[in-house]
Amino acid sequence: MFSSLQNPRQAAAQLMNFGLILSTAFMMWKGLSVITDSPSPIVVVLSGSMEPAFQRGDLLVLWNRNLYSETNVGEIVVYNVKDKDIPIVHRVVRKFGIGPDAKLLTKGDNNLSDDTELYARGQDYLVRKDIIGSVVGFIPFVGYVTIMLSEHPWLKTAMLGIMGLVVVLQRE
Amino acid sequence: MYSSIVRAQNSFGFFTTVVFVVASLIAVSDLLTPRAPAVGTLKTTNVQVVRGRPHYYSSKKEEYAVIKFSLDADLSSLFTWNTKQVFVYVTAEWPATPAVTGTPSNTTLNQAVIWDTIITAPSADHLANIGPAALKKLQKSAAGKSIDPSRGKLSIKNQRPKYQITHPSGKIAETDNVVLKLHYNVQPWVGLLTWNQDVDIGLWKQLKGGLSKKFSLPAIKKKADAKV
């Protein structure tokens, strides 16, 4: 059963295999990041402020290039508030001006008022560089796993444990 | 142990593959459904500019445009089996006045949403954030139907704007060349989000109409008769 532990060559091969899987996933993520020009090309919806369009756990595909047009009113964007690292997914409802300095105001479809309250002190509007991407694709529910994992940390341990056990027990 | 783990892995892998393929087919089916949205009328019925404060505790006074409008539109072709909701919004757009920015007009464009609405497809009615009575009514209106194109037919008379708009400078009175524009955003159950387009793409026709006549915002109303 524990033959892989007794055979160092096989153990090394398994380690390599595991490393290969990890690095492939990492490369795909970073590759997608380069293609979309977004630091986080896929995000999970964490709040209900865009309901009924997006529920918690839905997966959003982002695009951060302005190939044909600028980021316009009506687009759903993911932005980071100045000096805070919490991405927020809301719709652009006002835009004053054109270009990188255009002032943008966002609002959640499900919220009564706009996001002025959410912005940093002294920040009345967003600019283009606060935005890390516009939502172009939608995959429901798949991201719920990550919400489960972050809300119930013991699941992480359990999952890692099971994965480790499988790796150890499994013979290639 | 060995074979049961492998079996579980294989069936899970197959399951995800099937789900992925079916989801992609559904997403692609959007492209094969013709769309021909059209706007009959979009016109302002009453335009005012009033003075107000951005919020209760603010001492800053700003000018707000209150634009009432009428709208007739047929967006029924946007509702398919993959439609979760259609977000319809009306924007006011105007070029910057040279006095404010120092740049010649029509170089800088201002856009602000004055009104929006969420039209859920019957399959997403249960997600709508409305009161229980309204929800019951909404669900009843499409009982037994999975797709209800009639929801895309909008007929709105003399609608008050949901949002009173201003400019970051606080000045908006006596602005010329303002137009209202209707937009939509189709939210699918799975796949790509789409907006109204200015050109035909495959079977999707461009939005017909959807632009009001140019109008000017009036001067500020006297305090005595300004009611917001």
From TrEMBL, chain A:
Component of the signal peptidase complex (SPC) composed of a catalytic subunit SEC11 and three accessory subunits SPC1, SPC2 and SPC3. The complex induces a local thinning of the ER membrane which is used to measure the length of the signal peptide (SP) h-region of protein substrates. This ensures the selectivity of the complex towards h-regions shorter than 18-20 amino acids. SPC associates with the translocon complex. It is a single-pass type II membrane protein. CDD domains: S26_SPase_I. PROSITE patterns: SPASE_I_1 (PS00501). One of its GO terms (biological process) is signal peptide processing. Its EC number is 3.4.21.89. Coiled coil: none annotated. This is Signal peptidase complex catalytic subunit SEC11. It comes from Bombardia bombarda. SUPFAM superfamilies: LexA/Signal peptidase. Keywords: Endoplasmic reticulum, Hydrolase, Membrane, Protease, Signal-anchor, Transmembrane, Transmembrane helix.
From TrEMBL, chain B:
Pfam families: SPC22. GO terms for cellular component: signal peptidase complex. GO terms for biological process: protein targeting to ER; signal peptide processing. Belongs to the SPCS3 family. InterPro entries: SPC3. It comes from the Eukaryota. Keywords: Endoplasmic reticulum, Membrane, Signal-anchor, Transmembrane, Transmembrane helix. The keyword Endoplasmic reticulum applies. The keyword Transmembrane helix applies. It is found in: Endoplasmic reticulum membrane. Its main location: endoplasmic reticulum. Essential component of the signal peptidase complex (SPC) which catalyzes the cleavage of N-terminal signal sequences from nascent proteins as they are translocated into the lumen of the endoplasmic reticulum. Essential for the SPC catalytic activity, possibly by stabilizing and positioning the active center of the complex close to the lumenal surface. Essential for viability. This is Signal peptidase subunit 3. It is a single-pass type II membrane protein. The chain crosses the membrane at residues 12-32.
